[in-house]
Amino acid sequence: MDESGLIKQAQQGSHEAFSVIMRKYEQKVFHLAYSFVQDRAAADDLAQEVFIKTYFSLPKFRFQSEFGTWFYRVAVNHIKDYLRKTARRKEVSLEDVEERRLAVEDKIPAGEKAQADEQRKKMVFQMLETLPQKYRMILTLRDVRGLPYEEIGQVLGISPGTVDSRLHRARKMLRKKMMPFIVQEGGGL
Amino acid sequence: MKCKDAEKRLLRSFDGKLEGAARADLDSHIKACPRCRQRQKEYGVLLKNLKIEDVQPLPYFWERLAAKLRERERVEPWTVWAKWSRRTVPVALALILLFAGAVAFLGPHEEDLSQSEALLLRNTNPLAEAKSLFEETKLENKNMMIIFASDEKDPTRR
Fold it and tell me: 0.80 cut: is pTM over it?
């Protein structure tokens, strides 16, 4: 059965049809959630909530847009709500980041390189969390998830031109926030 | 090229959206401008650190999801009703409109009603006038009232 047939069945309440459609999007949604929370268990919970929300919102889908885009929009909106509710845009303690930076700058034994890389990433993501939501959202969709401009525009309901300008502003903001922690030589962190 | 424009182009170049002459202009600017060269490195490092490895969901993702769905459907039976009501509401509205139309067209019209029926339809006591007639003690007045009442109620009688 094709996707629209399965969607119609799922709209009538068929869990089986719903599961068949959603399996196609399982990884995409989980990775999207993970990009925002960077915690496997939290991302798992969030992805499940997205699927549950989609199931109950399915009767609202009127086949006027592509299902994948509609679904991704539901997912992004749910994640936005989640982030708002959990107030994850907490301010990062500068002392905390400073400690990490120093640790990264020290001579690192080869075996600890992976750990240092991990810490560096953590620092960047912590700073990303402090950005206003619309900039955090676009940076995550583009630079973390690698979505094309057109798809980001459809999901966020903005034009590709706005995607371009917002992304530009978001990257500049992130760089500015990271500036105190960027080691000038070689642009390393 | 100004550094501000170079930064814009630089950021586009990370998305592979810079080609031909624009790319060549940027490259020559970066070669000549240490500030922009530094900025290119900084953005490069930042964007590299935003890439994360894909992680897998926890085991039994679908089994857990199916259980949650069943649970929510039990807890929120109204959602099932909401799903169906979406379809039944327009049908119910159409039926109500049809019934109202039928009553308006096929129902009794005031000119077809007797006086008592018309008064009852207007929620007026049809016996009020008769009561005052019966209560009138003076015969003269009573006769006049009968004459006027019959004159009012039957326009054909003159």
Answer: no
